[in-house]
Amino acid sequence: MISVEALKVEFGVKPLFSNASFVVNRRDRIALVGKNGAGKSTLLKIIAGLQQPTGGRVSVAQDTTIGYLPQVMNITDQTTVREEARKAFADSAALGEKVKTLQDALAQRTDYESDEYMDLVERFTAAHDRFQMMGADTYEAEIERTLVGLGFLRSDLDRPTAEFSGGWRMRIELAKILLRRPDVLLLDEPTNHLDIESIQWLEQFLAQSSGAVILVSHDRAFINNVTNRTIEITCGQVVDYRVRYNEFVTLREERREQQLRAYENQQREIAEMKDFIERFRYKPTKAVQVQSRIKQLAKIVPIEIDEVDRSAMRLKFPPCLRSGDYPVICDGVGKSYGEHLVFEGVDMTIKRGEKVAFVGKNGEGKSTLVKCIMNEIPFDGQLKIGHNVQIGYFAQNQAQLLDESLTVHDTIDRVARGDIRMRINDILGAFMFGGEEADKKVKVLSGGERSRLAMIRLLLEPVNLLILDEPTNHLDMQSKDVLKEAIKAFEGTAIIVSHDREFLDGLVTKVFEFGQGKVREHIGGIYDFLQHHRIESLQELGMGKSENPDKAQNKKTQRSDTSDHSDHSVSSGPSGRKLSYEERKQQQRQVRKAEKAVADCEANIERMETRIGELDAILSTPEGASDVTLITEYTSTKKCLDREVERWESLSNELEELKSALQ
User: Fold this and answer.
1) Pairing of strands 380-385, 328-337
2) Which helix (H) or strand (E) is 266 found in, with range?
3) CA dihedral in degrees (36, 42, 43, 49; nearest 10)?
């Protein structure tokens, strides 16, 4: 579909990348990765035809359509959401005319066996199929389905786009691109403005799409779920790995180890040549050998090593006063804007040291409750901040409070204390401010760069309650890992508003779900919450189809009311008695312990089965058949395997019983 040949891009003395060649085939799902500034967005723009390369070319197959979603765009339309989305079908009429023209041309031809006729048939079929997908009889339903999938309410569809924030308007642009159903989708950070449910909907949409996808994303879970191929821009080169991102990470590490060994060998060879030249430079009898070494040295092409892996880089929060046992207590907290209810009756207790996540669709009140905790807006009910609580708050407007007259380095130097000042350059490098970037003035930084700088500054301030509102939107994967490890090691309390599942996984132990004016507590990690949430959604979907909408809504409200209690004591024991919060927590610990035991047992079984297979192969040879030691090992391993299988069955039954008790 698309062929990239010997592509080269130069913005200065050193090329951004050169000799980039690869082919994009139908159904390819490509993750385009590399450090910030490597040229990922530039490559997407070149493929989309919006920018010209310094050298090389991009060839696009005839009639191949491309949809491109940039990371940032200026939107000035003053139509409604629905009318804006309808623009996706502006080409439908033109395509209909093309189908009619091709059909008329076919009717006039009689050379049915010729290559020209077969080519005409193929063009007609492709155009006709695309026209059917963009049919006028279904596009209104398709518009509504896509916009709702991306998080809009049906009541939003007739509102002017000017009433929505930049993030929501980006969703409208994404909807328009998806509705056009192009053959190739180019997506630059599509998840930055989506909540978890919208990201999952987009994953399913892309999985069902028949076209190719090239995407840039720092959401590791998203690219793992969507892509099947990884292209990395590194050291000015483009390297194609035909594997998913997780496998790519392993292969990339192996590649870097090979580069390191080759680099070390080359440096040793260069040192030996230089030593020879210096020792015999002025000896006439060695002049020929010296000149030969000088020529060889000039021909050596230095081996480059992929960007230094900073995953071992660690940040540690400075010491702070110990807070009270309960940094945040909400009792019947509510917030409304006029007649619009954001949430009501919020009862929430966050203990010292807990790491919790606020999740839910955009507009359900996550940031609003954070502002209530910060006492930035008035609210109903009681909200108590605990003794000695010192809050560190990261919000989108935090970047606007930076001193524009300072450099990046000076901004951090002013808040760093103690030994951390010796590592400022390493910290800046981990957050993409390495080298000359550290000397830039704040006033010339982009919005994303300012957000990253504000994040670093916050991480170095002594606080015991950390509140982060969408902290990962402008961080690459390496920087997110650094931030995640810093929060995990943080001894204080953390509230994280985020849609990044991979970032939250293993970080939070409790999830507060915002929706329908309620805030519900879920014990466990983010994937425990997602599994529970999917089951609820399926039940509601089935009920919505079979019942009267008003009746279904009443039942849904009833479920919402009871779920406030169910998340604290939803499980019942064998006698039907509801479990208390502590009992449920204890049972969940037992489930996790049982799951680990089953996993360990399965690993043992796999190891023994592998060994038995190896022994089988050896004992089948004449030499091995007479080896008493191997025969004894084979017999004992078989007995151990049988015992382990019986243990696995027992543990699996125990695990099922524990899980049933939690239902």
Assistant:
1) antiparallel
2) helix 245-280
3) 160
Name 660's Cβ contacts closer than 8 Å, sequence gap at least 6.
none
Cα gap 472→287, rounded to integer Å: 61
Helix/strand/coil (H/E/C) assignment for every residue in 172-219: HHHHHHHHHCCCEEEEECCCCCCCHHHHHHHHHHHHHCCCEEEEECCC
Taking every pair of Cα atoms in the chain, the longest distance, rounded to a whole number of angstroms, is 102
Helix 245-280 to helix 287-299 angle (10° resolution) is 160
Strands 55-60 and 29-33: what pairing? unpaired
- Are residues 429 and 356 in contact, defined by beta-carbon separation less than 8 angstroms? no
Nearest to residue 233, comparing CAs of 309, 302, 307, 308? 307
Give the rounded distance of the alpha carbon of 626 from its chain centre: 56
* pTM listed for this prediction: 0.52
Q: Decide if 32 contacts 22 (C-beta within 8 A).
A: no
Separation between Cα atoms, residue 529 and residue 537, nearest integer Å: 12
Q: What is the pLDDT of residue 493?
A: 94
CA distance 385 to 348: 12
- β-sheet bridge partners, residue 512: 358, 521
DSSP 379-414: -EEEEEE-TT--EEEE-GGGGGGS-TTSBHHHHHHT
Residue 158 has a CB neighbour count (10 Å cut-off) of 10
Helix (H) or strand (E) holding 17: strand 15-24
Residues near 67 by Cβ (< 8 Å), separated by ≥ 6?
Answer: 177, 178, 180, 182, 184, 185, 186
Structure tokens at 390: 């010192």
Instruction: Compute the distance between CA of residue 529 and CA of residue 514 in angstroms, rounded to an integer.
Output: 12
Work out the number of other CB atoms within 10 angstroms of the CB of residue 107: 8
Query: Could you give the dihedral angle defined by the CA atoms of residues 84, 89, 94 and 98, in that order, rounded to the nearest 10 degrees?
Result: 170
| pLDDT tens-digit readout, 63-79 | 788 988 887 665 666 78
Q: Of 423, 409, 172, which Cα lies nearest the Cα of 310? A: 423
**Least confident piece of the model among 199-203, 466-470, 536-540:** 536-540
The C-alpha R_g of the chain, in whole angstroms, comes to 30
